[in-house]
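[job 0412] stage=fold_complex status=start
inputs:
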Amino acid sequence: MSGTEIFITIIRVGFGVFVPLSAVAVMVWMERRGAGFIQDRAGPNRCNVLGFRFGGLLQNIADAIKLLFKEDVIPGHIAHKFYFILAPALVFITALLCFAVIPFADALVLGASTYLMQAMPLELGILWFLAIIGFGVYGIILAGWASHNKYGLLGGLRAAAQVISYEIPMGLALVSLLAVYGTVNLTEVTQFQGRLLFGVIPMWGVVLQPLGFIIFVIAAFAETNRTPFDLAEGESEIVAGFHVEYSSMKFALFFMGEYIAMFVSSALIVTLFFGGYQIPWLNTQTLVAHARPVAVALMLILPAAAYVFARWIGFNNPGPAPNPAQRVRETKVYIAVVWSLVALIEVILLGYIVAGAGGAADRILVVWLQTAVFLLKTFFVCFVYVWVRWTLPRFRYDQLQKLGWEKLLPLALFNIFITGAVVVALG
Amino acid sequence: MSAELVLSGVLFFGLVVLLPLIMLATAFLGPRAQSAAKNEPYESGIKPMVGRADQKFSVKFYLLAILFLIFDIETVFMLPWAVSLRELGLSGFIEMSVFILLLFTGLIYVLSKGVLNWR
Amino acid sequence: MADLLALLPLIVTTAAAIVVMLVAGFSLFGREVMALLTTGLFMFCFFVQAATLVSMPFFPYQQTFGSMLAVSPFSGVAGLIILACGGFSALASQTYFGHNKGYVPEFYAMLLFAACGMLLLTMAAELITLFIALEIMSLAVYVLVGADRERLLRAEAVLKYLMLGAFSGGFFVMGAMFVYGGLGTTSFAGISRVLAESGLFTSPLATAGFLLILICFLFKIAAVPFHAWVVDVYDGAPLPVTGFMATAVKTAVFCALVNLLLTDGSLLSVWRDILWYLCVVTLFTGNLIALGQTNIKRMLAASGIVHSGYLLIAIISADVTGASRTVIGFYLAAYALATLGIFSALSTLSGNDEKRISFADFNGLAKVHPYSAAMITVFLLSMAGIPPTAGFMAKFYIITAAFSAGQLVLGVLGLISTILSIYYYVRLIAAMYFTTPEDDFAITGLALAPAGTAVLAVAVFGFSLYPLGW
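[job 0412] stage=fold_complex status=done
writing structure:
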């Protein structure tokens, strides 16, 4: 193994593990600010270090530290301590493992070798995801059972029944999608979506499979136990569901597992339906061929975006509480940081244009660009999760099962039938 | 199995499996205080009075599990079919249509028997 | 296309089963209409099967679906017997459920599904297909036996049958795996070819595999070391189901066994000695069990073991030509006629909750219902093998075949067993005719089962006249 290979492998694994983990913090923040926005209130805005609040992001750090230093209670009535401790780890691990096959950039060609840009260079793609996500339910049902608590057991049962029920529409939606793509490898799936339909519309999954998209998104919401399908932890009915007996870091693992699962399913939705890392009308070959103009365009777009962002901060961040002068000072620092970051990137891009353009540097630039696009799309879908959560009320349990079995399943079968007919007819 | 795959597998699995061990840290970092209330099932501060966690639960969950098995196996059959649909052509499509139709009839029967009427 | 044409009876039966299942699911029709509908569907399937059988010389049905299924005149005839059994069982069940609890509309769907499995079983030309068919059939029959969960007797029967049946199915799969490991093929033709080249005992794996497969078959036909379940299960099942199991299941499994053994006879030549001993033990153990019974259902179950013994005689003395299959087919048909007849008569006469079921309960039946008694007598005589019934001709053909194949001892033992069996059949006849009635034998319900019984009674005589080509 050459040094490059080891380096790229480490980078990939690091991305695969730490991006979902960091995304948890961003998403919790997004959830809180989103809730505040939708409910017309401020959200977390007091927690600070030396007056710097980072828009509420510090609240998450504070929460994490709090959970880490809480008492680790294992109640005396729990008979199976091993399973009790295993359950949160299982939920966390399965959620994170799912991310291993999702490509965050097109395959990187350096010299003679090709590197798949996913945490593990597996070609199993969607099959890996289906296999691992099935394990997720073990953690939940184990938590519910090992808690030895009525609410915990009910929550675990509900979650298990819900997850297995919605796994079927999800799997069937995937079947019709695979019939279109003709492969299970997610990198190939995304490359397929780089093409154009009738020469105009990007061949994204959502264009080719609108019905499959709706089914898949609904099933993905249910699989991640998110509102409107959060019956497994319906606070008003069963306290907290399967994690009612958990505290401190064990609870945090459930919490993080849930958000990671949300991030991963957003990433999967993006990969399957929204072209993954593809920029519409600019597929990898085009980007690599025109790397220099792209870099110039970036150099122009970045300051513009930074200007809008700085104006936005300058307009929104100053406020009365707790100390108006402090908040004005905070705003100034933020704007300075944004502009210095932009300056740094501009210098790097300039250096690239002057010195490194052509060859490997082009491809690496494209990888960075695509990764950024992928994360942007993924966080947008994450925001949709948040949006839905604070908009829709919770289902009743029988309504949930009826939606899954009576509506989504026949629809998915119908979709497969239509898709199959079209695919066979077109050759 | 390339060396690349082995290295990423070991690294990835190692990290993913080791990360949850953070939770063991709380055992050292956190305070420790026992009390009688901490040692009974948490029911929002009320003493557990009705029912137990190890009692029977509704048979509906088992029915769902069986339904899941049937249709999940169907999905498993359909995945390779879907990937190679272009090579299988019309005959493959018709065969799978018959299969879908049969299972769909089963679903209609199950629904007609009221498996999903949670009352 | 020939593939699908050969499979037409099976497809029609499956479609009928699905239709009945949906009708049952939505409770569209009442009990009477369901019975008539199912009988009609069975008749339709019967005619389709008959048409396939007649058209057989004109189509190349021999090897369909890549040699996984083989359609032969023998499998066609077995299919006819099975579908007829289904039809008569549906008729009998209509009357039976008129005065018995435990009716579920799915009963009829299960009857049709069981028939599907059986039809597939008769056509199977490969071990895995055979296993799938066996399981389709068995699962439906388990449900038929145990659908009435209220009664403990049913629960006991279905538990015994399900557990042991599942085990025998497991043995079969295990055996098929070993055979595939040992011989590298699962098709009957391939197995025979490999065996003819090398002989069985060159491969210990295949030897073990065949032993396991043999165990499964012996379980399903209730031959002796694996007969223990049969009496309790037949006793526990509802009467029409008992009749269906005794006839259709036996027909299907024997058809599969014959297909496996007589493909070109090399497997039979290996198994002949084992089967010889098993057959003798089956004959006499069955008789011994039947002699001690006071309950008609249990007696008939035990006599079913004996009839399996006679069929084993036919298999042992078979040669590769079609003649031995004709003999087996004839015996199966004759046995099915008599058994179905007696079970449909019992469905009528047994009364509420099968209250009349022992020999003593039928004391003096002839004085109250002379025609019913006469028909039961006809069926019992046919099972015992008294001329001029079909049962006599069937046994005559089998014993003759044994003698002509040189199996003198086996033929003589078969004759002795027949003479023994007359005792318990005639006991019931004696009870019906030579005692005074204690019961009023009130019969309720629509008279579909008696009609079926009458048809079968005539058929028992009519079928004995069927000329078997000599």
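[job 0412] summary: The radius of gyration of chain B is 25 Å.
[job 0412] exit 0
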